[in-house]
Amino acid sequence: MTAISTHYSVMLIGVDGPSPPADRARAQLRREVREVVTRALASIRLRREDILDADHGEDVQFQIPPSVSPARLVSTFADAINGELARMADRRGPADSVRFRVAVHCHAGSDHDPPVTAMNLLSALVAAQPLRDALRAASRAYLALIVSDETYRALSDGGYRSIDTAAFVPLSLEAAEFGTVTGWITVPGYAAPPGIERDVARGAGLATHLHGGSRYVQVTGGQIANFVQGDQVVKGDLIFGSMDGETRPAAPRP
Asked: In the chain, where does the domain assigned CATH 3.30.70.1230 lie?
């Protein structure tokens, strides 16, 4: 029987937290991931049987049906998961709390067969060090989210009111199968993900993103990217701006 091709979203969740004791092995952590996700499903009007899940190395993969838009997945659903993790932390205490690194990618394929390339991309994104850094620095959140470049473009082009695309910060990373790939990080409750060094950004191409009176510019080849306040204009080889109230001159181009 030929599978019907349509768009699905795949979510890969990695767990961060204190080293588990002997009686709380990886299998138990995976069960906890599934329990948290199951409780959060009501926020997007799904039942547990509506989604597919599988272990993927140390992480847990979930395939979400096309009835859930990418916007609802990275806003409503992510917020619900964050809320469930916060309640879990309240019950257990900080020393025994867990936190999630969440990667999301939208793909075309059958609901029973997410492409291997999609899973490899998600594995690279969910393991990205800047995502770990953002999660570690986010004292008010229990998850950090990264989406593929394809997914981010669907969000930014879709005109979704529930999505503040300016709250996503791009990063470039090397993935063995893909070369240089771009991911976009955001953290619930933050205007921009904390804990990420934003003075320098690497990437292919020029991307300018507006957030209030600040402008984040991602430039090519390891050149300088920083924030420019107000309506200032940046030209030439030196970029001056301010970030977090501190004025920082950018380094000259070599």
From this structure: 6-196
Fold type of domain 6-196 = Alpha-Beta Plaits (3.30.70)
Q: Please give the pLDDT value at position 99.
A: 94
Query: CA 144 to CA 53: how far, in whole Å?
Result: 20
Structure tokens at 91: 């019950």
Residue 229 · residue 246 · CB < 8 Å: no
- Chunked into runs of 10 residues, the chain (254 residues) has average pLDDT values of 61 82 68 94 92 90 90 94 95 86 82 71 94 95 96 88 90 83 95 76 34 33 36 37 36 41
The sign of the CA dihedral 117, 10, 207, 137 is negative
Strand partners, 8: 107
DSSP SS3 for 64? strand
Main-chain dihedrals φ then ψ at residue 173, nearest 5 degrees: -140, 160
Cβ neighbours around 191 below 10 Å, total = 13
Backbone φ and ψ for 10, nearest 5 degrees, come out as -115, 135
Give pTM, 2 decimals.
0.74
Burial class (CB in 10 A: 0-12, 13-18, 19+), 233: exposed
